[in-house]
Structures are given as C-alpha cells and as structure tokens.
Design a protein that fits this description.
This protein is mostly helical. The protein has five helices and no strands. It starts with a helix and ends in a 19-residue tail after the last helix.
Length: 164
C-alpha cells in the first residue's frame, strides 16, 4: 500500500503545499469551482471503489497482494478483469484526475500526466512481459481478448477451446 499512498496522497500533498502560494489553480468563478469540486469527488470515489475491488480480487481469487514480493499466485480473470486488463491503474488515474479537479490545480494535473506517461511506458514494456513469463499461454490469450485501458462493453469469457 506504500506505492498507492505515495502516488495518491504524499506526492499530491507536497505539490499542493509547494504550489499553492504560487497560484497554480485554474482561474474559475465560484459556480465553476463547485462543479469541478463535485466532479472531482465523483472521480475520486469511483477510483477508490475500483482500487478496493481489484485489491480484494487479488487477495480472494489470486491469493496475493499488490506488493511485488507477494503477487497473486493465481491468474485473476474475474470481475472487472474480464473487461479491462489494468483496472487498478485506471482507479489510480481516476483518483489523481479527481484530485486535480477537486483542488483546481494545474500542478496536480502535471503530476497526473507524468504518472499516466510512466504507466503507458511501464505496463506494456515491463509488467506485461513479466505476466507472460509467469502465466504463459493463459495470459497471452487473455491479453489478446481484453483491452489494456478501455473496457470492453461485455465481459470476456474464455472459449473452452482455449483451455482457460
């Protein structure tokens, strides 16, 4: 939980603390600020729900955690993972975007963009090859049927012929 805490709380707090005096907020009138506040709360709540659900799936279905030293022992293809391959990171994206809106912070938006770019590079080039080595054909079939970022409209069900 250290990495999500750093990403979602510590880094944004430092950014807000160091940039508030510099006036890094979007210059919006009061009604627009209230709208951003409400939308920000919605994104944060949605992201946290998504994160909690994926953490629970890792523990229950995968017998593991988010921690690299205790990853899921079993390949998890249940719940939201039947629609999208990276729901945990999507949840983090939602929370970070919600924080940008909630605090009307351009500096937080820059952090959001940096985090998105880091994951757009890390996941396909480092995380996915590791999953391919750990889970083999099972992951390759899944990867070919479930998109990385944009959820499928209908949940994917493994074809019996694919031995999943």
């Amino acid at each position: 939980m250290l990495l999500p805490l750093m990403t979602l709380a510590v880094v944004p707090a430092i950014i807000l603390f160091t940039t508030r005096a510099a006036g890094s907020a979007w210059p919006l009138s009061v009604p627009q600020n209230y709208g951003l506040f409400v939308i920000g709360i919605f994104f944060i709540a949605s992201g946290l729900i998504l994160m909690v659900r994926t953490i629970a799936l890792f523990a229950k279905a995968g017998n593991g955690t988010l921690a690299p030293w205790a990853p899921p022992e079993k390949f998890v293809v249940q719940g939201i993972y039947r629609r999208v391959r990276n729901p945990m990171i999507s949840g983090v994206f939602f929370v970070l975007l919600g924080e940008c809106l909630l605090f009307s912070s351009i500096a937080l938006f820059a952090w959001f963009l940096v985090f998105v770019i880091m994951n757009v590079i890390y996941i396909p080039f480092f995380e996915e090859p590791g999953l391919e080595r750990r889970f083999g054909r099972e992951y390759l079939i899944y990867k070919g049927n479930v998109p990385r970022w944009i959820p499928r409209l209908r949940p994917w069900k493994a074809d019996k012929r694919e031995d999943l």
